[in-house]
Design a protein that fits this description.
The strands form three sheets. The protein has a six-stranded mixed sheet, with helices on both faces. Strands 2-1-4 form a three-stranded antiparallel sheet. A two-stranded antiparallel ribbon has the order 10-11. It is of the alpha/beta class and 267 residues long. It has one domain: P-loop containing nucleotide triphosphate hydrolases (Rossmann fold, 3-Layer(aba) Sandwich). A hairpin with a 2-residue loop joins strand 10 (255-259) and strand 11 (262-266). The chain is built from ten helices and eleven strands.
Length: 267
């Protein structure tokens, strides 16, 4: 692949294998994601979907001597990990749990500029421009009124939006959402989906990791199924989300239904 082609790709992996505790958690995975392409990665627990995200963000590294190994992100093979994470905003339940402390929402959002959890006045130089950017993003997400609330005093749905705001302060190329609606009630899930749709319509790549079909917003056009550390199926959403594919993926009878622009699965 030429450099010009690489620059048009968010992710370009070839033959990526990751070993943990003596076994492959990713097995010879090859995957390309184009710029401005919104995808969902679906798989059962332990399938390797979160591990794949950790390779993208350089938390996990592949077996170095794999033949024809390629692991490019945004056209580059070598990244400073902090620079990379500015380009790929990560939202996970684990990160939210780390942020549930005595910091305000605004402090948590500002900490995104420093790749920290919270702000420490003696270490960080928070500028007027940073504060203006953080407040603008909070308003865009509809939680500007929560700026000075403690993270421990807001709802799970509001905290998830605060994490999105934290991820957006660097204007990243992509948002990576790992099981984003875990622990959210129905209203929060509805509001979260609307928020992610709005961000996708700004031109950000959305990479959604889930086992719940109802998380797949209309702006996602491609679905990747992963099982036992391998790509099980990959293609257009309407071609991949079938009874046959989902039944084979989860190894139980699954019925897929479409409601408007959203999908649901029943077993």
């Amino acid at each position: 692949m030429t450099n010009t082609q690489n620059e048009a790709m968010l992710i370009d992996f070839n033959n990526v294998t990751v070993i943990k505790d003596g076994r492959p958690i990713l097995d010879s995975v090859s995957l390309s994601i184009a710029a401005n392409e919104n995808i969902a990665i679906i798989g059962p627990n332990g399938s390797g979907k979160s591990s794949l995200i950790k390779v993208m963000t350089r938390e996990y590294y592949p077996v170095a001597d794999a033949p024809e190994l390629r692991m490019n992100v945004l056209g580059e093979e070598i990244w400073n990990i902090f620079d990379l994470r500015k380009q790929m905003g990560i939202i996970t339940t684990d990160l939210q749990n780390s942020c549930l402390r005595d910091s305000t929402v605004l402090e948590i959002v500002l900490s995104g500029f420093f790749s920290s959890i919270g702000i420490y006045d003696d270490l960080f130089d928070v500028t007027i421009e940073m504060k203006a950017t953080a407040i603008e993003i909070l308003k865009f997400l509809g939680i500007g009124h929560l700026a000075h609330k403690k993270m421990t005093k807001i709802s799970s749905g509001e905290a998830r939006k605060a994490l999105i705001a934290r991820a957006l302060v660097h204007d990243p190329k992509a948002l990576v959402l790992d099981e984003p609606t875990n622990s959210l009630d129905m209203k929060s899930v509805f509001q979260f989906r609307k928020t992610i749709s709005a961000i996708a319509n700004l031109g950000k790549n959305i990479i959604l990791v889930t086992h719940d079909l109802s998380d797949i917003i209309p702006e996602i056009s491609r679905v990747i199924l992963i099982k036992n550390g391998k790509i099980f199926a990959d293609g257009k959403k309407e071609d991949i989300l079938t009874n046959e594919n989902l039944s084979a993926l989860f190894e139980i009878p699954v019925t897929v239904q479409k409601h408007g622009e959203y999908y649901a699965a029943f077993c």
